[in-house]
Amino acid sequence: TIDLRVYSSRLLGADPALVLLGGGNTSVKHDVPGPLGGQVRILTIKGSGSDLASIDSSGFAPLLLDELLPLRERSRMDDETMVELVTLALINSSAPRPSIETLLHAFIPLNWVDHSHADSILTLTNQPDGEEIIRDVLGNDVGVVPYIKPGFDLSKAAADVYEADKSIIGLVLDKHGLVTFGPTAHESYERHVELVSRAEAQISQSRKRRVTSMFKASDAATQMAMRIRGGLSRRRRMIVRFDGSAGSRAFVDRHDIFEISQQGPATPDHVLRTKRVPMLVSSSDPDDVLSEIERYEAVYSAYVTKHAVPCDDFMHDPSPRVVLVPGLGLFTSGRTVREAEGVAEIYRHTMDVIEGATAMSQYIALSEADLFEIEYWPLELYKL
Ligand code: ZN
Question: 71, 81, 340, 343 — which has fewest CB within 10 A?
């Protein structure tokens, strides 16, 4: 069973349009021999922080399902209590920390559950009439769960939507992602691919797929990268990567770039890597970059002050992770090359989702307050 769970998790993880860098999670419910004879029911779920594309059995955490199911009877539960109770259900003390979406998997009664933040699903949900669009495209095959921060309340709401119509093959979590389930690994995976493909087919009707080709960085891009790196490295050394591909260029050169780029990420946990919004460089003079970075940081600090509760005195590094430069392309930053590349990878998918949504209607993201909650939420920080 675990081998099959590893296999189909990797299949999902192998497609970057479905799962990006640690995003998404999978689980299976199965019986194992109990210590006193008989069988015990186990939920084996992806641990927080591991990557589905390369996961092996050690990336999963086994939990006693009978310890988790009664939690659904509670009317409320704070995050710390949830983590504590979920951890108590672990049967292997050396297992990784179970996913923060564990209870969602537990409360769905089907054995196999797959969850992703698929681009095409986010393209549909992140529009003004997202729910109607989902209904048009996916019909009654899915239930729609309104946006709720991951955790206990979302898990209960998802289970309620499933129970209201057990004929559904999946749940769309508004502005967050897709969950499919089934009696076998194969069915759950096939349903995932089926729903994502239907969403993709709809989007490509509104949009001609763009052709991407990589250009060599021009002198102007190199100059700009140096200025950005200098501006970002005032506190500590940062790496800057440049993507001047045709796709990125077409995006940054859009006439509505300000409006579309300042909405927010496609799914909440991207906020941890890309920040809520990219910096959009408005001047073509590289000498202005430093003052634009300072302005971005001031706006970021104001955002933290506005949403933080008084006892919080912690702020992430206020500088931008994504910098969009019209005429050049996409710049991303990180402490390492790998981190900067990871940010670029996520933002390329964000651009894709935005292009798709705006081709159909308009792109919208979660509110500033909802995203702040995720960006400064201790449970999400474990992922980093
Ligand atoms: Zn998720």
Answer: 81
